[in-house]
TrEMBL record:
Every Sigma-54 factor interaction domain range: 143-372
Database matches in PANTHER family: TRANSCRIPTIONAL REGULATORY PROTEIN
Record-given protein name: Response regulator with CheY-like receiver, AAA-type ATPase, and DNA-binding domains
UniProt record, GO biological process: regulation of DNA-templated transcription
GO molecular function, one term: ATP binding
Length: 473
């Protein structure tokens, strides 16, 4: 992360020295004119460290300093004092200033003292990250798999961890793209830097530029304070751009430029900011198709996809379902203080036969629910949602099979049975039409009488992959 240093310094010599010495570091300097200083504007600069000459502080000093101390960044304040009076020095410290420096000391000593403050700020961020990293960030060694596809995938991933190249992670929703990108970050030489994730689908279009690149105060109505963007926050680490396929074309052009130069100008700003960031982008969209449709820039697609990795869906790595299930069982036992031994055999079989449209996220949720509902020390079929009660796998080859009437229906409610049957019928119908159209979405949607977007959503939910029908065509 870049450290923002806001200065309102009367001594020109100190200003010049600061500019010269800090220019090459991870420090972004902003100078305010001491003669026309607005304390409110200074406070809105979103700085990590303030350095001000004592005569610039409006009276009463205590309230001016407490205004800075209460800012969301919890900034540090350094006051340059032009007199060597220990009483005034003590008074400044008592009003909440972190460091008081006599401006008459040799320049080297002054800069050294300033450097110590900057270093403690770096440690502040490092400590924050270390905590989070220690508790949450997965490592690549945590990813073990019995599936051949997944093993190949993990070998490929290990080969690219140490490089700084941009990665494009592809795969259906919930397959673990963000989880994996955290592991790539934690195993890379950037692990002591921040990991910043930002989801393009979750940001309104008009705020996207500011979210990514920050803004200066007054840049637009409502921008009362300056704000850092995700790229600046990720300095020294990794930025994860989730749902990149949702990024509007205009922003794609800006992103492409930033990826090429690693330099950007915050909205409403004048100076460009340089950052050292590794970019990992992810999407569950077919970007090639988006390029063909003209909704995704071809040059950006190539730039992002220097290394392109596709995480297999859970239904294509069924060998891993038992170990993942047990992993989530242990996790939830700890979370809810339960002591459950295992899954019954029919329950585990049902989990393995299911087509998992929501992938690992769905599995995680199903296990959490089962742990909460379980009354004995073993999770049975009853504790799984109704769709698992018919363990017959849905056939995706387009052939129609008669609906089965499983024994479990005897104990299910009518709405539960209706849901289970409805999903099964929809899956069989769509598979039949996709087979006929050789996986063409537009044509299938037309026959089905629904919008292509609705068709995509249904296929995603039901775990239907159009590629399976293309191959057969
Ligand atoms: N290998 C794994 N081991 C344990 N938990 C995992 C694993 N992979 C994914 N998860 C968990 O599954 C959930 C979904 O994963 P994640 O958010 O990374 O998926 P995604 O592919 O990025 O989804 P989306 O495309 O919807 O953003 C997360 O809570 C994540 O922690």
């Amino acid at each position: 992360m870049l450290i923002r240093l806001a200065c309102a310094i009367k001594e020109t010599k100190i200003r010049t020295e600061l500019e010269n010495r800090l220019a090459q570091q991870d420090v972004q300097l902003q100078f305010f004119k001491p003669s026309r200083l607005s304390w409110q504007a200074l406070a809105r600069s979103c700085a990590d460290v303030f350095i001000v000459s004592s005569p610039t502080i409006p009276k009463p000093v205590e309230s001016s300093i407490s205004l800075l101390n209460e800012l969301p960044e919890s900034p540090m304040t350094i006051v340059l004092h032009n007199r060597e009076s220990s009483e005034e020095h003590a008074n400044l410290l008592a009003s909440g200033v972190d460091v008081v420096l006599y401006s008459g000391i040799p320049m080297d000593s002054l800069l050294e003292a300033l450097e110590t403050t900057l270093e403690s700020r770096r440690q502040f961020y490092y400590a924050e990250r270390f905590d989070r990293r220690g508790r949450f960030l997965p490592r690549l060694n945590d990813f073990t798999s019995n599936s051949r596809d997944m093993q190949v995938f993990l070998d490929e991933t290990r080969q690219v961890v140490s490089s700084d190249a941009t990665i494009l992670l592809l795969g259906e929703t919930g397959v673990g793209k963000e989880h994996l990108s955290k592991a790539i970050h934690a195993d890379s030489h950037r692990s002591t830097g921040p990991f910043i994730a930002i989801n393009m689908a979750a940001i309104p279009e008009q705020l996207m530029e500011s979210e990514l690149f920050g803004h200066e105060q007054g840049a637009f109505t409502g921008a009362v304070r300056s704000r850092r963007g995700a790229f600046e926050l990720a300095h020294g680490g990794t930025i994860f751009l989730d749902e990149i396929g949702e990024m509007p074309l205009q922003m794609q052009t800006k992103l492409l430029r930033v990826l090429q130069e690693l330099e950007f100008t915050p909205v409403g700003g004048e100076k460009s900011v340089w950052v050292d960031v590794r970019v990992i982008a992810a999407t569950n969209k077919d970007l090639e198709e988006e390029v063909e449709k003209g909704t995704f820039r071809k040059d950006l697609y190539y730039r992002l996809g220097v290394i392109s990795l596709t995480l297999p869906p859970l239904r294509k790595r069924k060998e891993d379902i038992p170990s993942l299930t047990n992993h989530f069982l242990t996790m939830n036992q700890q979370k809810f203080g339960r002591n459950l031994k295992r899954f019954s055999q029919p329950a585990m079989e049902a989990l393995c036969n299911y087509h998992w449209p929501g992938n690992i996220r769905e599995l995680m949720n199903v296990i959490e629910r089962a742990v909460l509902l379980c009354k004995s020390d073993m999770i049975t079929l009853e504790e799984l949602p109704s769709v698992f009660h018919n363990t017959k796998p849905v056939r995706m080859d387009g052939s129609i099979s008669a609906l089965s009437m499983p024994q479990e229906w005897e104990t299910m409610t009518l709405p539960q049975v209706r849901d289970a049957v409805y999903d099964q019928v929809e899956a069989l119908y769509l598979a039949m039409v996709l087979k006929k159209t050789h996986g063409k979405i537009g044509e299938t949607a037309k026959i089905a009488g629904i919008h292509p977007r609705g068709l995509y959503a249904k296929m995603k939910k039901l775990g239907i992959d159009k590629a399976e029908f293309k191959a057969k065509g």
